[in-house]
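Record type: monomer structure entry
Structure origin: computed from sequence
Chain ID: A
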Amino acid sequence: MERQKYNTPYSAREKEKALKLWRMSTVEFVCHRYHCSERSLWRWKKRYDGTPASLANGSSVPHTPHPNRHTDEEIRHIQDLVRRNPHIGLNELYGKLRLYYAYTRNPVSLYRLLRKRGYYNGVRKARKAYVPKPYHTPLHIGEKWQMDVKRVPWECATIAVPSDCDFYQYTVIDEATRERFIHAYKEQCAESTVDFVVRAILYFRYKPKIIQTDNGQEFTYLRQVKADKVHLLDKFCEKHKIEHKTIKPRTPRHNGKVERSHRNDNERFYRRLKFYSFDDLQSQMKAYLQRSNNIPMSTLYPRGGRKSDWLTPKQKRAELLKLDYGITA
């Protein structure tokens, strides 16, 4: 059957058919056939002038605005942020509103307002539903790090950068807090990996119990070589009593948190990045690291609190340090 509006179950054509059927049968039969009330039939008959246009559904917008709607000032703040940052994501927008404008509404309310105003009008492609396998995410700080390497897109380099130079972004993420540390290198090798782990420990100010990586040569040797040689990363982990865990080959989803963070980097950083030298890349990457660790995440919320109270990785780190160790940072 034809449907015109989500909250109006009958179209003008259906109402006209019900009234014509009423002329040849009883009210009870028409109500049973069209699943409507007798009062609705009388109301339609009163409005009907012989044309279907007289039975058209009117606007469902309420005459008086809702008392808990977004205020004009809140809408102006949202519009200003979106205008100044046209590519901003929902999480970052929500965080800026809370930080700078004392925004206290639910993130879903913000999403509905943006969608209503046409911010999410893009057509989504149909995707097959993915059923994730059970995975234990640590609840305490420093239990496990995920580490991976990403090649810096060559499109981001300007003419001043030699065309034969490749740069790599090393990334490590704490699974409990989602706090990250990133650093750029000119080579993707074992020496760079060990140097990066040392820098990460100095940045976080603690060492992890487990470091999880893929099976790249910068992290481990192939199975045929493992019997004869010990990788530099394994030597470092053994010396500092850290367990080095490798995921199953060709299963990057097992390192899902760091892989997802790389996708965020493409959207938030590399899409609009232009650097003029390796030092410039390091400088911009350092500023982006500070920004990314202060963006709220829907997976982070206070322990025992509401899931709608999104926390940033920095806020989650402070909460776990206080709960686990009594440290107020």
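Annotation 1: The chain has twelve helices and five strands.
Annotation 2: The chain has three domains: 12-55, 72-116, 144-299.
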